[in-house]
Amino acid sequence: MAVQFEVKVLEHCRVSPPPNSVPTTSLPLTFFDIPWLLCRPMQRILLYEFGCSTAQFVTDVLPQLKHSLSLALQLFFPLSGNLVCPPHPAKPHILYSDGDSVTFTAAECGGVFSDLLRGGLRDAKEIHPLVPPIPIPPSRILNESLLELTPLLALQVTLFPNMGICVGIQFNHVVADGMACTYFLKTWASLFQSRSGLSCIDEVLPVVDRGVIKDTDRIEDVLLNQWRGWGSPRWKDNAATVGLLEEKVRATFVLTRGDIEKLKNWVSGKCISAKHTKPVHISSFVVACAFTWVCVIKSQDKITNDSFGDEDLCHFSFVADCRNRKEISVPSTYFGNCLAICFVSVKRGLFRGEDSIALAADAIGRRVQELESGVLVGAEKWLLQWNEVSETGDLLTVAGSPRLALYETDFGWGRPRLVEMVQIDASGAMYLTEARNEKGGVEVGLARSRAQLEAFSSIFQLGKDQLQQC
Question: Does the keyword field hold Acyltransferase (predicted)?
């Protein structure tokens, strides 16, 4: 039976940067931002074991959470602003005005915290009350124009009295990618833990200036025109989103460091025996993605009795961080989007052979290697490619990355016991994060129908068992 985590709101408020700490600022969207105008909001929860009573939470923890959040928003002020979508031909942009704020909810849950940490398949809907919604205000008249304003961030901290705390976040991808949002979260956590104000921030401050993104090929104009040709994305239809969660279950799977090393060695051996040469690029990311992709395809085949044809294409999409790459010189502390969107396509029949993982790894590895020749090659086609592969209905995308090191987000309650990316319940993506309990391991999250996820689980475990025999 599914566990329902119903929450009681203790406080619902808005938190802004300190008054007069940030001037009114308009940030243009770069070509890295525009594709994410079509993306559903990102959702994460971080679960911490922490024995805290409701009284202690309200009198001690909550005020400091809000104060440290205000200071963090001073550094990451675009999160407090709004996405402004004016009528054509004006361009969408992010606008921060003094006093702009984010929604902050403090809540209490009477459920059993340890139920959130249990393994196995779980009803996808059970954790959604721990994620705050981003309120969508009505359109506003400004300078005689009707503007669509979209808030960019909402936060919720839910106390499980004397058991634990859940930090839930929902943010609009157009303001920042996963690396940038994690930078914000870790800064907030550091400020909360130190209780010493901004003086505890001894690292380089975030760079919010969109001018560091150079667009010599006018990619922005191309992508903007393509975006304008698309209708409103389906995720804006709340009824459609809720419908996607029905009958869904989710689970987290682990590839240990040993599994990853065996996969690398096995893939390399298969490539050498088949092509008499080493694979182009093999990494933990590549083999984890390849292994999961193959298991997803095989689970589809299992529950549909191989109804797909061998010539049908299976698509895989991932992103590559472009910070600190010589060709575009964007600093590692850049707060915004800086991701190249990559696609890989393989005929389904190739997934049905015994070398399917090696073939998938080779295809993904080759696409990763191509980035060395230019991360922006084909950038003007990102939206067109996305539309093309999405229409086939056989696209698997990757959310997150082990490089985000989400388990290092410490508010002073220790490392998170569990990190979940909640938006995959509706998007169908897989997510990757570093394994909590072992350096070099990887956690894989997935949400599917119960029948498919049960099939995936058995195929995933069988694959791991076979690795031990290599």
Answer: yes
